[in-house]
Amino acid sequence: MTVNMTKGQAISLQKQDGGTLTAVRMGLGWQAAKRRGLFGSRTREIDLDASAVLFADKQPVDVVFFRHLQSDDGSVRHTGDNLVGGAGQGGDDESILVDLQRVPVHIDQIVFTVNSFTGQTFQEVQNAFCRIVDETNGQELARYTLDGGGQYTAQIMAKVSRVGGGWQMTALGNPANGRTFQDLMPAILPHL
Amino acid sequence: MTAELVRGQNHPVSQARVEIRVSAGTPVLALVSACDDAGRLAAPDAVAHPGASGLPGVQVPEAVAGEHRIAVDLDAVAPAVHRLGVVLVLPPGGPARFGAVPASYVAVADPEGAELAGYTLTGLDAETAVVALEFYRRQGGWKVRAVGQGYADGLGALLADAGLDGPAATALAAVATGLVPSGDITLAALPTAAPPTVPHGLRAPQDAAAATAAPSPPSPPPAPEPLPAAGAPYPGGPAAAPGSSSADTVGGPPTIDYAHPRRRRTTTEPPEPGPRAVPSPEADRPPAPVAGDASGWSLEERLYNQVWGMFEDLARTVAAYRSACDFAESRMDRELDDALSDPRLRLAGTANAARDAARARHDELVAQAKAVLDRDLAQLIAESEVVEPALPAAYARWANPVWHGHGVPEEAPLALRLGDLHLPERPDLRIPMLVRAPLERGLWIDNGRTGSEAAMTMDTDRLRRAAMDMAVAHAVRLLAVHPGDRFSVHVIDAAGAGAASLAPLVAAGVLAGPPAAGAAGVTRTLEVLTRRVDLVQMAVRAGAPEELPPDVDVADQLLIVHDFPHGFDDRAVTRLRYLADEGPAVGVHLLMVADRDEASAYGPLLDPLWRSLMRLSPVPDNHLADPWVGHAWTFEPDLPPRGSRVLEQTIDRIAAARRDARP
């Protein structure tokens, strides 16, 4: 059962049977918006990048993105850069796997961001979504659809944070501007 | 090509006539049990053993031997029989447990003699009887499964577990192991002694139970040694009903989970029936590690991948621990600074409280990180304990028993163990340092005292000797794990300073020639090898590797250079650099035993040479970094245990194999 999340909504990452999740995958998919052109509709390639920033006490301590595909402790892994996006088939174009049991104890928040590396704004992106999947059985736990349009080049999608002994996910969906996660740091900090 | 099975893995058997080959490190008894579809023995006569060696379709050997060949005709097996178990038993009077002998190997071969599947029985310890393989009916055909289920209480326990009731099982076990002549059995009247293969003292409740449950023996058991027969000398408690399940008693067999711990079942085919599906009592415990459960085509490759997986896991889990500790430290420093720099706090006298709070937060985080680290390390240690004994000779420590049963292999190894790696967090968790063979880079064993702290404390002579001994151990390992004619070792020892270490190699005649001495010897050896590199390179480039002159040795070559640059002129140095650069691609490998400082007269000319070699040290030294996180790992050489003659024995075996091959 999938929860369709809205901005600001938080869900607890518990299994339906009450057990805690051990591994989740943050999937990102998008499609370039069709533009009207002289020769009918055509699309331009858009390179969106998913990144995960690991925070300890509101300080960034590690980051996983297309230049650093695995956190030093191995708990957060990026499956690789996708430069063009899918054809809107609904599959994930980029994924970040989080092994929640192996996340170092001092990491208390992981923020997921999406940047348009090629610099196009999200106006030119359609069908973009971010979803979180229980990696052990492939079940989708939550899906958050980016509302299209807007003159910005990045989104702070969601964060996963420690609550008590478990984890919870919060949909953030905040627009920002920047080509990589570094440009987003000032925008991320208020959400911690 | 032979499929190498791991415990629990199965393989289809398409032929009806197959031969089971057993090669054990010690004389064993081979039996075959025929079970019904529930995995139970119908009657004592469903076991083919030396006393009654025939079953329909199966004939077992009657003697105790290290090698067995059992012919099986699967078409002739009775239709009621659904499983055939191949059982190995240590006979009385021999070794007391499988853990004390080299791992046995069982294979299934077709009538032409080609092996279809093989299985090495690793990880056994106190067991004296083991179900090695099991043939079972599957969708109209037969399959074979690697079982490896051992029984510390011997054949009696094994048979009892297969459904024979206690007295019958022990009686049959006694007959099968040759303690009672098979002619005059009346099963009911047999003395119900514990099977004589039971090690004394330990793990006895099951036998005690069986013994006390049986009617009191009319005569003392005809055992060669006093045995715990009737009277229950063990605190085994009240007698259990004969044949009752013993899985929950102390002596019960260990249970195996046949499910792959990290693989999900993908097909919709119903799971194949396991021999005994025992649900794990503690489901949330991490699965028990299994040697060779990584991906790969052969067991060798799976173990290689598993070792590298352990290496990466250890690197990452320690990285997590260190980063948590660093963070805790820096946070405490920051909070202490804040507490001290705030004058209000100082005046109010709450500075102490703030300081204590900061310290407490630090300690709490470190304790949490430590708990996680300990959990992961415990898992890795358990895995290491399973993997280390299962390693083949090329990967194994010199202390591993596999070296004692090591024969000349048929194929070159996939990788080699150069030594052990560990981190200061857990110095006793040693990761084998495996590198792919053939080596892409030459090796440099640094015998200089300025190389590391541990070397500084040793005197020069001992350090040099240790370095050369290490080089010899590597050479012996390389010779032993390559097929006889596929590897040769040359030595340059210009001043003869390494003669003491080299003596066993020279005496056994396993080197390509005597160690080259003096400037002339250095030049000659380098010339031969340079010529070989040139010719093989030319032949490979021309696409005609067969067209080499007959005097060119196509085997891989290892050149050990001791005492560099003694005896080297400029021309020889250039040649050596050429070999280091061009040699590995065409099978000429360099092993330098040298002190970099002694060659300092050459200035920066030799820097590329040293950089191109992989530096190892004869003493523990933390100069190696892993490819993931970049921790400094402490390298420790793996040398034969003190007082062990494993190196000499291995050299003798190599020499014997080469003598046999030559004429």
Automatic annotation (TrEMBL), chain A:
It holds the Pfam family TerD. Residues 1-179 form the TerD domain. Signal peptide: none annotated. This is Tellurium resistance protein terZ. It comes from Streptomyces roseus.
From TrEMBL, chain B:
Residues 204-214, 228-247 have a biased composition (Low complexity). InterPro entries: P-loop_NTPase (IPR027417), Stress/Tellurium_Resist (IPR051324), TerD (IPR003325). Residues 215-227 have a biased composition (Pro residues). Residues 67-160 form the TerD domain. Gene3D superfamilies: P-loop containing nucleotide triphosphate hydrolases (3.40.50.300), sav2460 like domains (2.60.60.30). It comes from the Bacteria. Pfam families: TerD (PF02342). Residues 197-294 are annotated as: Disordered. Belongs to the CAPAB/TerDEXZ family. This is Export associated protein. The lineage of its organism: Bacteria, Bacillati, Actinomycetota, Actinomycetes, Kitasatosporales.
